[in-house]
Amino acid sequence: MATISSYYFRECIQGAARKGQDTGRLLTTAGVSPSLLDDFNARGDVRAMARLVQQVWYSMDDEFMGFTEHRAKVGLFGLMTRFLVPCESLEQVLKAGARFYNLCRTDTHLHFTLNEGQAIFEVSFSRPDLDPAHYFLEFWMVIWHRLAGWITGGPLPLQWASFTFSEPVEYLEEFKYMFPCEQRFDQPKSCFAFDEKHLRLPVVRNRAELKAMLREAPLMFLTMPASDLGLARRVRAALLPTQGKIGEFPSIEDLARRFNMTPQTLRRKLQREGTSYGEIKENIRRDIAIQKVLKGNARIEEIALAVGYAETRSFTRAFRQWTGYSPLHYRQKYFRSATSGGRLS
């Protein structure tokens, strides 16, 4: 059973308490014993934490839980994510998400920048005094980091994270799990950074998966691993084509040299992680192809070339093996299911 420090249970309800909510009722409805909050060394079930967050959301009709100047009505985050699934890459996801909240909110701000090979995602609030323990600031940063990982199919490795507050003594070990990277405190901005090469990661989730994730939110953000520095993910990131370029894959010998190891060592390490170079290449082709097919405005011939197939017939055969459908049939099925709220069948 995954657990979380009692600190987060205590802080979760502080915004609600300031707004006059019955915190005892919130705890009881979520199945959280009030005695948990009194024990500074205790840990609680992460599922109970997720239920408590939901109780605060719905009792206040505020996804920002009373920690910001204005309410964020329940459903706002779900509405935002509907604009993310059609995106082709993580870069487009972060830009679209930031633009959405910056357009509809005046008390929160998201800022995405590139600097010397690093992608930086910044979070700020107009009234930080409403979040004195910076609980929601941390929560909001965690959500964006793990959403980026979820929508691209795996944890997003961070290079560093900076915070406007001092090092949290009470829950430092928990904090290291939330942000598994170099941590910088007492900084002018709260943000996290990762290698810009990950911006090319394709979106691999569909609307059905999105609906399932939202039904369980925020549980996924609390239980999803914060990091995965495995070789398979690093190989995948290195192979992803830049936007607008045709997918090309080096030989395993060339790839091994890039990672400063022999081809035999590369094969062995990938095998230990349950995959192979061929499987990674095939998965990249599949993910990019599906995303481009679902975007709906690209010709099948163009998609075939973009993922390394010189012949449309060969691409169609491969696509049928991946999905059970031809590209055109898959596109038609998807848009029918999207308008009816169902799944591909």
What brief labels describe this structure?
345 residues; alpha+beta; Arc Repressor Mutant, subunit A; 3 domains; five-stranded mixed beta sheet; two-stranded antiparallel ribbon; 18 helices; 7 strands; 52% helix; globular
Q: In total, how many domains does the architecture comprise? A: 3
What is the makeup of the main sheet? 5 strands, mixed
- The total strand number stands at 7
Unreliable stretches: 341-345
- Termini separation (Å)? 34 Å
Along the chain, the helix and strand elements come as: EHHHHEHHHEEHEHEEHHHHHHHHH
Strand content: 5-15%
Write the layout of secondary structure elements.
Layout: E1 3-5, H1 6-12, H2 14-18, H3 23-30, H4 34-38, E2 43-45, H5 46-60, H6 76-82, H7 90-104, E3 108-115, E4 118-125, H8 135-152, E5 160-162, H9 172-178, E6 182-184, E7 190-195, H10 207-216, H11 219-223, H12 231-239, H13 252-258, H14 263-272, H15 277-295, H16 300-306, H17 312-323, H18 327-340
Parallel strand pairs: 5-6
Antiparallel strand pairs: 1-2, 3-4, 4-7, 5-7
Helix pairs in contact: 3-5, 12-15, 15-16
How would you describe this structure to a colleague?
This protein is of the alpha+beta class and about 350 residues long. The protein folds into three domains: about 1-60, no CATH class; about 75-225, no CATH class; about 230-340, Homeodomain-like (Arc Repressor Mutant, subunit A). Helices cover about 50% and strands about 10% of the residues. The protein is built from 18 helices and seven strands. A five-stranded mixed β-sheet has the order 3-4-7-5-6. Strands 1-2 form a two-stranded antiparallel sheet. α12 packs across α15 (about 275-295). The radius of gyration is 22 Å and the shape is globular. Mean pLDDT is about 85; it is low at about 340-345.
